[in-house]
Write a structure and sequence with these properties.
heterodimer; A: about 250 residues; alpha/beta; six-stranded mixed sheet; four-stranded antiparallel sheet; about 25% strand; B: about 325 residues; 15 helices; about 75% helix; about 5% strand
């Protein structure tokens, strides 16, 4: 692979008391790549995301982003470096309007990264642009709790995109959506990837992961058991065993 | 309205209140008015942490009394003008606010509230056992009868508190419309998500506790000169903590107007009740109003109006 490495995870481990959530996980993601992350419930996918984003801190191992070790950095510093995520269960800022929800990453991630204080008008314009992109323009002044399930997922993604990340981690952005809605979100993620954003997609909908990803990582019980092209992963006997049993 | 225009409008409104008060020749008005203004400051200060940032503080009395007792200490050591005492009181309470914040902000929700309650008990115990400031006996302050330029001392106290109330309201409104205000709201709504989208949550929370504590300390600093006799039981009175929570809740916690409305309304009712019924009725009134508002208007008076406007527009 010729593209430079954007994210490198080396020997990452995380335990909660006596429970080992992640054990010696290694992988890397190249710039512009589309990577799928799958695994049964409780396999450590969300813990891994949390360790990458700084919501949790890994005990051992190293996470390098764009060549820089980011272990120990709090989440707000990592998003400023360019790692943004959407949450598995949407966590909108409930008392802010849909538009103002996007203002938070614009004010606190983008402005802090670039060192430029954008004017209110510029930020308003950018919010409007993002809302149109996601088809939420007519909801800008509404509270997020009025949104439907699919709109809430879109807001969750829009907020992550607003942070202008180099790496976007979409944690089950499509859970609970109809097949056509899944296609909408997939098309959007592909468009973002074409603009140069590296994407890690965590998903249970296999059709989505398989069509989207160039490479698929499989986590089982905190260990990486496969890291290959999607068509090879589905044929991997170890993966089949993890999902379907013996 | 821009921030500059608002500062001007607030200053004009403050001057108008003072101008009108000069037409009143009853000294009691200034005594009562001082208390209402003091509650505007306390309610606004509480709301910066409790309403904007979502951290409920039960320890208002501690920050308020630290401001008051720093004035007692300074009174015994040196002779300083009142505005200087307020700056010192504000600085001390601000520093304690910062320290409390640093030690407790990893606690959330009810645990943070209990920690602030504990702070009030700890500070009160320290004061009760500190002989220099009078301990449990209390301390007497001899205030001058007249102040140059202002005349009557109680009018002077009224004016000082009026200025502080304007400063507090301007601060709150400026925050509300700023980048900082959005950061506070994000923390209140979902701290984990706020951090994930770039908000330095710890730093912002420390800013909120410091600012809120400092304003409370500033409100407390003139208290010894107002009462002329300060003992721990009055300085740490439960009424301060209860009122500074109830006023924003009744007025509305999301804007600067809420604490103002709540403080004027509740503060005035309490002053009237003190004269007509008994001061013992005050907390009962607050309690009943609070229960009523929680049921009828959970978003306070401001929330009621917003609901009304939205219904009319729709």
């Amino acid at each position: 692979m010729s593209a430079p490495t954007l994210l490198a995870v080396e020997d990452l481990s995380k335990r909660f008391g006596g429970f080992v959530a992640l054990e010696a996980v290694n992988f890397s993601v190249a710039e512009g790549e589309r990577v799928g992350l799958i695994g049964p419930n409780g396999s450590g996918k969300s813990t891994l995301v949390n360790c990458l984003c700084g919501t949790l801190q890994n005990e051992t191992g190293t996470v390098r982003f764009a060549g820089q070790a980011i272990d120990g950095l709090p989440a707000h510093r990592r998003v400023r470096l360019g790692i943004a995520r959407s949450f598995q269960l949407p966590r909108p800022f409930a008392t802010l309007s849909v538009g103002d929800n996007l203002r938070i990453p614009l004010l606190y991630a983008v402005d802090a990264r670039t060192g430029v204080r954008h004017s209110k008008a510029e930020i308003d314009a950018r919010c409007g642009e993002l809302l149109s992109l996601m088809g939420l323009a007519d909801k800008a002044t509404r509270p997020p709790l009025e949104l439907s399930q699919v709109e809430m997922r879109k807001l969750e993604l829009a907020r992550a995109i607003a942070a202008e990340p180099k790496l976007l981690i979409a944690d089950e952005a499509m859970a609970g959506l109809s097949p056509s809605e899944v296609d909408d979100i997939l098309a959007l993620l592909v468009r973002l990837n074409e603009r140069g954003i590296t994407i890690i997609l965590i998903e249970h909908i296999m059709r989505a992961v398989m069509s989207f990803s160039e490479r698929v990582l499989v986590l089982v019980a905190g260990r990486k058991i496969a890291d290959a092209r999607p068509e090879d992963v589905v044929r991997d006997p170890e993966v089949t065993r993890a999902y379907l049993g013996e | 309205m821009g921030n500059g225009t608002f500062v001007l409008a607030a200053a004009v409104a403050g001057a108008a209140v003072f101008g009108l008060s000069l037409l009143i020749h009853n000294e009691y008005f200034f005594f009562a008015g001082y208390v209402v203004l003091q509650y505007i400051v306390l309610a606004t200060a509480w709301n910066i942490l409790g309403g904007y940032t979502g951290y409920v503080n039960f320890g208002t009395a501690a920050f308020f009394a630290m401001g008051a007792y720093s004035s007692v200490v300074l009174y015994k050591l040196v002779s300083l003008p009142l505005p200087v005492l307020m700056v010192v009181g504000g600085a001390i309470s601000g520093i304690v606010g910062f320290g409390t914040g640093y030690l407790t902000l990893r606690l959330r929700g009810v645990y943070f509230a209990i920690a602030t309650l504990a702070l009030a008990v700890v500070v009160q115990t320290l004061i009760v056992n500190w002989d220099f400031v009078g301990g449990a006996r209390g301390a007497y302050i001899m205030r001058p009868a007249q102040v140059p330029l202002f005349g009557n001392y109680i009018q002077y106290l009224f004016l000082v508190m009026l200025v502080l109330a304007v400063v507090a309201l301007v601060t709150a409104r400026t925050i509300e419309r700023s980048r900082l205000g959005y950061g506070f709201s994000a923390i209140r709504d979902d701290e984990l998500a706020a951090e994930a989208f770039g908000v330095p949550t710890l730093r912002l929370k420390l800013l909120a506790t410091t600012l809120s504590g400092a304003l409370m300390g500033m409100a407390g600093a003139p208290l010894p000169y107002y009462v002329t006799y300060l003992d721990p039981a009055s300085g740490f009175n439960l009424a301060y903590a209860v009122n500074s929570i109830a006023m924003p809740l009744i007025g509305g916690t999301t804007t600067w107007v809420g604490p103002l409305i709540g403080a004027v309304l509740l503060g005035t009712i309490q002053q009237v009740a003190t004269v007509t019924i008994s001061s013992a009725a005050n907390l009962l009134i607050v309690g009943l109003l609070l229960v009523g508002f929680v049921i009828v208007a959970p978003n306070g008076i401001v929330g009621l109006f917003e609901q009304h406007w939205r219904a009319r527009r729709a």
